[in-house]
UniProtKB/TrEMBL annotation:
<keyword id="KW-0807">Transducer</keyword>
<dbReference type="GO" id="GO:0004984">
    <property type="term" value="F:olfactory receptor activity"/>
</dbReference>
<feature type="transmembrane region" description="Helical">
    <location>
        <begin position="143"/>
        <end position="165"/>
    </location>
</feature>
<dbReference type="InterPro" id="IPR000725">
    <property type="entry name" value="Olfact_rcpt"/>
</dbReference>
<feature type="domain" description="G-protein coupled receptors family 1 profile">
    <location>
        <begin position="43"/>
        <end position="294"/>
    </location>
</feature>
<dbReference type="GO" id="GO:0004930">
    <property type="term" value="F:G protein-coupled receptor activity"/>
</dbReference>
<keyword id="KW-0472">Membrane</keyword>
<dbReference type="Pfam" id="PF13853">
    <property type="entry name" value="7tm_4"/>
</dbReference>
<keyword id="KW-0812">Transmembrane</keyword>
<keyword id="KW-0675">Receptor</keyword>
<keyword id="KW-0716">Sensory transduction</keyword>
<feature type="transmembrane region" description="Helical">
    <location>
        <begin position="273"/>
        <end position="293"/>
    </location>
</feature>
<feature type="transmembrane region" description="Helical">
    <location>
        <begin position="63"/>
        <end position="88"/>
    </location>
</feature>
<feature type="transmembrane region" description="Helical">
    <location>
        <begin position="100"/>
        <end position="122"/>
    </location>
</feature>
<dbReference type="InterPro" id="IPR050402">
    <property type="entry name" value="OR51/52/56-like"/>
</dbReference>
<dbReference type="InterPro" id="IPR017452">
    <property type="entry name" value="GPCR_Rhodpsn_7TM"/>
</dbReference>
<keyword id="KW-1133">Transmembrane helix</keyword>
Length: 314
């Protein structure tokens, strides 16, 4: 590959990175990655299918779970093509406009998933703290409207972010740290002033995922307070057990996302594989683990899935 000069220009393409130092083994390393993608795609598709086809699951809690599965599917599909191309065919190059489009979907589905997790926390809050009004507050029409708000919120804020990115000039190496396009990663390659981009990106992250996480935390403070006021130990245990799946989903979503953000902001001298590993964990692990968690911990989902594969025993 010819070296890049320092002339400012708008790039035709960027170059993705697999696992630094292990390029010769990318075909073999693709096997576990493909298995994880297969689990994520089949698991979330199954969750969506059973919720749509099983009338007993047509309740607010499962509608929110279907939204979570939808966003997880979106995240997987947003990176599947570039991952397969990179690991199987060493297709590292990605067109600049295609890179912008991929960022739109990755960040859009990320913001949507954060919003869905907040809704699920609100669902648990109402179910535990105000159960008598649960069905009157979380009606189907309200859930549909909130779903539309999530989509609009997750996409509208990204338009100015990506337009700001397109105005930048690039004169450094066009080699990215991940097998997909990630906004902070692309922005670092610019030789223009990126203060506005950085400030807007930070503000967008705080006003979406950051604000959502604060409200989730507040919801669980109120939920725990309500649970501790229950006299019966068995009832307390039962109430708390309904939150375990959601708490796990929140943890596996926010911990990798925060870690990746910290690495991009403060890990300039971190080894390249750190960016790669955390970046892959951030996008692959939540879609893989969420259907497993909800299938194992939620009896109704587990029974609906078993009913498909073992209809005579259920």
């Amino acid at each position: 590959m010819a070296p890049f000069n320092n002339t400012m220009f708008y790039p035709q393409s960027f170059f993705l990175t697999g696992i630094p130092g292990l390029e010769r083994f990318h075909v073999w390393l693709s096997i576990p990655f493909c298995c994880l993608y297969g689990i994520a795609l089949s698991g979330n598709s199954m969750i969506l299918f059973v919720i749509i086809t099983e009338p007993s699951l047509h309740e607010p809690m499962y509608y929110f779970l279907s939204m979570l599965s939808f966003t997880d599917l979106g995240l997987c599909l947003s990176t599947l093509i570039t991952m397969v191309g990179l690991f199987w065919f060493n297709a590292r190059e990605i067109n600049f406009d295609a890179c912008i489009a991929q960022m739109f979907f990755i960040h859009g589905f990320t913001f949507m998933e954060s919003s869905v997790l907040l809704l699920m926390a609100f669902d648990r809050f109402i179910a535990i703290c105000n159960p008598l009004r649960y069905t009157t507050i979380l009606t189907n029409s309200r859930i549909a409207k909130v779903g539309m708000v999530i989509v609009i919120r997750g996409t509208a804020a990204l338009v100015p972010l990506l337009l700001l990115l397109k105005r930048l000039s690039f004169c450094h190496s066009h080699i990215l740290h991940h097998s997909y396009c990630f906004h902070p990663d692309v922005m670092k390659l610019s030789c223009s002033d990126t203060k506005v981009n950085s400030a807007f990106g930070l503000a967008l992250g705080i006003s979406t995922a950051g604000l959502d996480s604060v409200f989730i935390l507040i919801s669980y403070v109120l939920i725990i307070h309500s649970i501790l006021s229950i006299a019966s130990p068995e009832e307390r245990k039962k109430a708390f057990s309904t939150c375990i799946s959601h708490i796990s989903a929140v943890a596996i979503f926010y911990i990798p996302m925060i870690s990746l953000s910290l690495v991009h902001r403060f890990g300039k001298h971190a080894p390249p594989y750190v960016h790669t590993v955390i970046g892959n964990v951030y996008l692959i692990i939540p879609p893989v683990m969420n259907p497993i968690i909800y299938s194992v911990k939620t009896k109704q989902i587990r029974r609906a899935i078993l009913k498909i594969f073992l209809p005579k025993r259920i």
